[in-house]
Amino acid sequence: MQAHIVVLPGDGIGPEVTAEAVRVLELVARKGGHTFTFAERLMGGCSIDAHGTALTPEVLKDCQASSAVLLGAVGGPKWDDPTAKVRPEQGLLGLRKGLGVFANLRPVKVHPALVEASPVKADRLAGVDILVIRELTGGLYFGAKGKETRDGVEKAWDTLEYSDFEVRRVVELAFRLAKARKKKVTSVDKANVLESSRLWRRIAAGVGQAHPDVALDHMLVDTAAMRLVTGPAWLDVVVTENMFGDILTDEASVLAGSMGMLPSASIGEQGPGLYEPIHGSAPDIAGKGIANPIGTILSAAMLLRHSLDLPAEAAAIEAAVDRTITDGCRTADLGGKLTTREMAAEILKRLG
Fold first, then answer.
1. Which residue out of 49, 81, 164, 222 is catalytically annotated?
2. Class of domain 119-256
3. pTM (predicted TM-score)
4. Is 222 among the catalytic positions?
5. Which of 62, 226, 232, 284 lies 20 to 30 Å from 6, alpha-carbon distance?
6. Residue 109 catalytic?
């Protein structure tokens, strides 16, 4: 297998955690006889500083021509003015749109050894293994926006828009993935209030009829938020629109004990996928070498599985991470003392 991977370390702790994920991928390549090449590029706040934009056309072109893209994190206090015309998040949104990655896969699995690290009661965490599929290129984040001041009154608006095909393709993906799991899909919306959610629910119901071997439940987003902390083990595959998915997956991260544990994959119908941990740039600990690299390393495993079709290698990384945690290795976010580099070294030891 030959693959070219673009690495976007980004801002804050991004360079620290992506460096460790690259080390893991390099070991996988050596062990499996694969050839992985890596090209590091700027995106986010660092790109704003260097080029005046969060994502240059040249970097986007490099990403589009790659086998896959590995991202660290973007943003930080330096670029945190919400009124600024150029912001790090614009690079992320532009990258998602430019790669055509419409579905964000976020697995949330609770490791038995980390139950006590979660603020949720231990008896509610047994058996939690959720896959949240978030629609990624539609909704409020990409709808028409505007603001005006008229007669001394300030007004602003963001438009939540979805087309039928945008909903159908992500829901169909949810059903395909559910067939390899518990054959259960929960579609999350706000159909009692929003017209866009009523469209979402109608299409989800239609897709469900075409897959009678998979159970489908519809759930309002406020109920889903409650269910995530009161009975998360009931959920399996959850599919929802962009903003709801953004919020719910951050909430779900507390189940695993730390946001540093969770990976994500953003994929489309074809072309390279985008892989990143769900955490942010964590500027308060940037440069200290104490960030948890597991979310990024597990994102690299998802890269192997979804973009390079190397499921055995992906499973080997996941098993190495699992053994590392079982053996008591912990970074500061999990109550331990290992550095970023030391945690990755423990995983590499078990992978090698």
1. 222
2. alpha beta
3. 0.92
4. yes
5. 284
6. no
Residue 190 is among the residues annotated as catalytic for this protein? yes
Q: Which of 141, 189, 236, 275 is catalytic?
A: 141
Is residue 271 within 8 Å of residue 306, measured between CB atoms? no
pLDDT in tens, 176-235: 999 999 999 999 999 999 999 999 999 999 999 999 999 999 999 999 999 999 999 999
How far apart are alpha carbons 146 and 320 in whole angstroms? 48
Catalytic pick among 190, 236, 275, 333 = 190
Topology, domain 1-101+262-352: Isopropylmalate Dehydrogenase (3.40.718)
Q: Break the chain into its structural domains and give their ranges.
A: 1-101+262-352, 119-256
Cβ 313 vs Cβ 32: under 8 Å = yes
- Are residues 291 and 297 in contact, defined by beta-carbon separation less than 8 angstroms? no
Is 162 catalytic? The answer is no
Q: Which of 62, 129, 158, 250 is catalytic?
A: 250
Q: Which member of 189, 246, 275, 333 is catalytic?
A: 246
Q: Tokens in use for 190? A: 């706000």
Please tell me if the domain spanning 1-101+262-352 has the same topology as the one spanning 119-256. yes
Q: Is 213 a catalytic residue?
A: no
